């Protein structure tokens, strides 16, 4: 790992199209991640979030991780991001995501993440995926539970936007023995 980083096919779900984030997404990324309610729930983003931060994401993070822009089918407007971050010392990746607040509560993240999980198991052959959420973000915990993740531990995790450690829940999803590609 990382392997096959150049292989990042567009993914389709019933309501969503997932594609590689691009320069045209800078404004949408800044508007969403620049919202305090989004930034404070993410480990790796600064606040305030600027166009330079979005360009850093596009130039440095996107090429190094499997990251997709989430768009509604029939629209090219980015409403969120979902991806897998390769883990340095394991044949695993960490699922991470965010969604613009206007799209919360509609099941879109569960749908997008399910497609990315299938990619991780089917195309990358990963035996397991990790993820996590801050304790004060139970909605993210519900998304991960719906996807089949189970809690492994609780610990402090750095949050750049807050500028310190935050209580977090770590979870794992092991590839089912009878995995058929239908997450």
Tell me briefly what this model is.
This protein is an alpha+beta fold and 183 residues long. It is built from 5 helices and 8 strands, in the order ββαααβββαβαββ.
Residues in β-strands, percent: 25-35%
Specify Rg, calculated over alpha carbons.
15 Å
Based on secondary structure, the structural category is alpha+beta
Query: From the structure provided, what is the oligomeric state, counting identical versus distinct chains?
Result: single chain
Main pleated-sheet profile: 8 strands, mixed
According to DSSP, the number of beta strands is 8
Task: Provide a descriptive summary of the structure in words.
The protein has 183 residues and is of the alpha+beta class. Helix content is 26%, strand content 31%. The protein is built from 5 helices and 8 strands; from the N terminus they run E-E-H-H-H-E-E-E-H-E-H-E-E. It has an 8-stranded mixed beta sheet, with helices on both faces. Strand 1 and strand 2 form a beta hairpin. The longest helix is centred in the middle third of the chain and has 15 residues. The radius of gyration is 15 Å and the shape is globular. The model has no long low-confidence stretch (mean pLDDT 93).
């Amino acid at each position: 790992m990382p392997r096959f980083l150049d292989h990042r096919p567009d993914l389709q779900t019933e309501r969503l199209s997932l594609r590689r984030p691009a320069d045209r997404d800078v404004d949408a990324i800044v508007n969403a991640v620049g919202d305090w309610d989004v930034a404070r729930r993410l480990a790796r983003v600064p606040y305030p979030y600027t166009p330079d931060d979005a360009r850093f994401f596009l130039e440095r993070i996107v090429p190094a991780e499997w990251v997709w822009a989430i768009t509604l089918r029939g629209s090219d407007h980015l409403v969120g991001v979902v991806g897998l971050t390769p883990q340095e010392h394991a044949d695993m990746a960490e699922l991470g995501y965010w969604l613009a607040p206007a799209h919360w509560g509609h099941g879109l993240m569960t749908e997008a993440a399910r497609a990315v999980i299938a990619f991780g198991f089917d195309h990358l052959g990963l035996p397991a995926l990790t993820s996590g959420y801050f304790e004060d973000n139970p909605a993210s915990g519900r998304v991960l539970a719906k996807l089949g993740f189970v809690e492994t531990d609780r610990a402090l995790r750095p949050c750049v936007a807050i500028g310190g450690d935050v209580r977090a829940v770590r979870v794992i999803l092991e590839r089912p023995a009878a995995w058929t590609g239908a997450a």
